[in-house]
Design brief:
293 residues; alpha+beta; 8-stranded mixed sheet; 4-stranded antiparallel sheet; 6 helices; globular; binds 2-oxoglutaric acid
Length: 293
């Protein structure tokens, strides 16, 4: 794959040329827009801090689930690294559009939607209800390199992910890494890892990926098949991110999974998948009626 540097991937929200940014995304399967989510960062940080505290308050009240443990308030915990203060650590927080007004508002940011429209076309829906991930300090989980399509493979283009930094994020506290151009590799085989589905670490070492260090408010867009991941948080403060995903209004999941076992089962049913029950909220354009047959 062609060697790509940070300069090839980044633009500034203050001087956003939507068409030029969309071209970067299409070529590399990823794009960094500096400062795009700045208008929402303070409110998001406030809500994420609240949900971290809520989770800590009930961290011992858990139910086992296939991906780890769920707390009473709905956070997903996974096993903690050796030497951690608990045997479980936070991963996915119960922060979504139905929990936080700031989060929902940030999913409707007009310049972001202009950019998404320039990539996906005029009719766009939200994919799911947003995601918020926290790496706890002093060892918080790595997310092994992976393609999101391992978790939600789609019929058409698939969702564009937009991961947003809430604090300044660097190599020490777990910045996102991307492999530019990897969206053209097709669907790769994933394995079960501590952080769920991930690529084989010998075939896909971190050295093959480009770290994206950034400031609070920076956004990283990535294709559903762009290889990405992040290393542990070695700092002394939590590292939160929030993620929006947008997809064409007619797109839908054909394979949904979290483990190799449930993925193998889901692949058998892929041909039966349809748009039924997969309609999400529209953020641009109109959902056209499609006559069957
Ligand atoms: O929390 C992170 O840095 C990684 C997020 C990620 O890879 C994902 O949600 O697919």
């Amino acid at each position: 794959m062609k060697s790509v540097s940070m300069n090839d991937l980044e633009v500034s929200a203050a001087a956003l040329d939507v068409k030029a940014a969309a071209e970067i995304y299409k070529e590399h399967g990823c794009l960094v827009v500096r400062g795009l989510m700045l208008p929402y960062v303070d409110a998001m940080r406030r809500d994420i801090d609240l949900v971290i505290q809520e989770t800590l308050d009930c961290i011992d009240d858990v139910t086992e689930v296939p991906e780890g443990w769920s707390t009473a308030n709905g956070a997903l915990l996974i096993p903690a690294p050796e030497g951690f203060k608990r045997d479980k650590q936070m991963m996915c927080m119960p922060m979504s559009y139905d929990f936080s007004a700031a989060f929902f508002q940030s999913a409707h940011h007009p310049p972001t939607l202009d950019l998404v429209e320039s990539i996906l076309g005029p009719d766009i829906e939200l994919f799911q209800l947003g995601q918020c991930l926290v790496k706890e300090p002093v060892g918080g989980h790595p997310k092994n390199l992976h393609q999101d399509a391992a978790y939600f493979e789609h019929k058409y283009e698939g969702p564009i992910g937009q991961l947003n930094y809430v604090i300044d994020t660097d190599l020490n506290n777990g910045c996102l890494h991307v492999v530019p151009g990897s969206h053209r590799l097709g669907m790769l085989r994933h394995e079960d890892t501590l952080s769920h589905l991930g690529l084989n670490a010998d075939e896909w070492p971190w050295e093959k990926a480009l770290p994206i260090e950034g400031r609070a408010g920076d956004s990283i867009f990535f294709h559903v098949k762009c290889i990405h991941g992040s290393q542990p948080n070695r700092s002394d403060a939590p590292r939160p991110v929030f993620i929006h995903r947008y997809r064409r209004a007619d797109d839908y999941i054909v394979v949904s999974a979290t483990t190799t076992e449930n993925r193998a089962e889901a692949e058998k049913a892929a041909a039966q998948a349809s748009k039924d029950n997969q309609r999400m909220l529209m953020v641009r354009g109109f959902r056209r009626f499609e006559r069957e047959g």
